[in-house]
Amino acid sequence: MTAKTIIKMPYHKTHMDIEVETEKLNGILAPRTDEYDPKMTQEKIVLNSLASPIGTKKLCDLARGKKKVVFITSDHTRPLPSRVTVPIILEEIRRYNPEADITILISTGFHRPTTREELIYKMGEEVVNNEKIVNHISTNDDDQVYVGKLPSGGDLYLNKLAMEADLLIAEGFIESHFFAGFSGGRKSILPGIASAKTIMYNHNSKFINSKNARTGKLENNPIHQDMIYAARASKCAFILNTVINSEKEIIGCFTGDIIDAHLEGCKFVEELVSVEKKPADITVTSNGGYPLDQNIYQTVKGLTAAEASAKEGGVLITISSCSDGHGGEGFYRYVSEARDANEILEKVMQIPMEDTLPDQWEFHILARILSKFHVIIVTDLCDPKMIEDMHMQHASTFEEALEKARKITGDDYTMTVIPDGVSVVVK
């Protein structure tokens, strides 16, 4: 009997167990976040960090005497543990300033607004019922204010509500990011609360094509450099950034200056999530489950980890629910209406920085992947035709995906599994 290895893969709000032949398994690339034991509760981790911020005064001291406080938090696409953090942050602000006028600003970036149901899932009903919450809408020009010129030459427009605050703070979480290097920190500002024009300029094809705009890279990353400028220009006075494990539990927290605290958090994450590539004929990954695997748009992120490890010309299988569909009409149409991936790449590299299209960065990276690999998405929650229209194959089960992959690679294949593609930095 052939020996089998069972691997637990995140899928939607649950998991999918996959069976692979042990002798064909080249390696399992997983972060060490689940092995890290902070030896304290999530609440204690956050409170300890708030007591010793990096490069700033304590949040409660910064809040003293401030009338208009704007508190930026991530949208529905990010697994930020806000049920834990938001009540603690609100209590810190109100410790020395019980009368503070606090607005929670959802940093949607270029995404759709977060719904009430999603807000409750994210922050809890008590917060949603009792706090003032506003979605940032990047396409509403009247809601933005000009702040200055980015180092790359683009115009920086940021949310007017945030820029008019007496105290601007932000929460986020830090993980590897497929073109900004790492999430968190300055990303709360750009793209979080930036105008659509600014976001599109920052995500232009020249920058996306840069070898430095990759997972885990900050040095000489042109996208990151613009984000740093935006963060400083916003005068965001304090951040709380968490690090989470596969169960979305807090294992680390970094508070204080938007640049310095974030960098400390990035170092912590990099030590836990860096893995060596294991080239194989078939590379299996996921997008970390809900909320990051809600659509095809987000699924591209996990695929970049597989791209970084796989043999060129091989098969990438991603287990991702895509329960919310494609995730962007422009993204879907640009990919589905093209003849193939190479046509997309040729066209996108001719688009000037100032004329960057909505979602261009996402179909640019997807086309880069599709030009080198065969991609199969495993889901029973998404229309198969939508996936196939975008030049990928669909499978309802992992077994079906593996059978399709074997028709491409043959039976004498090797396999690498990356259980959560958005949680690792492949070296």
UniProtKB/TrEMBL annotation:
Every Lactate racemase C-terminal domain range: 275-426
A Pfam family that the UniProt record links to this protein: Lar_N
Record-linked Gene3D superfamilies: 3.40.50.11440, 3.90.226.30
InterPro entries xref list: LarA-like, LarA-like_C, LarA-like_N, LarA_C, Ni_dep_LarA
Superkingdom, natural source: Bacteria
GO molecular function terms noted in the UniProt entry: lactate racemase activity
Residue intervals of the LarA-like N-terminal domain: 11-216
PANTHER family from the UniProt entry: LAR_N DOMAIN-CONTAINING PROTEIN, LARA-LIKE N-TERMINAL DOMAIN-CONTAINING PROTEIN
Protein name as annotated: Nickel-dependent lactate racemase
Organism: Propionigenium maris DSM 9537
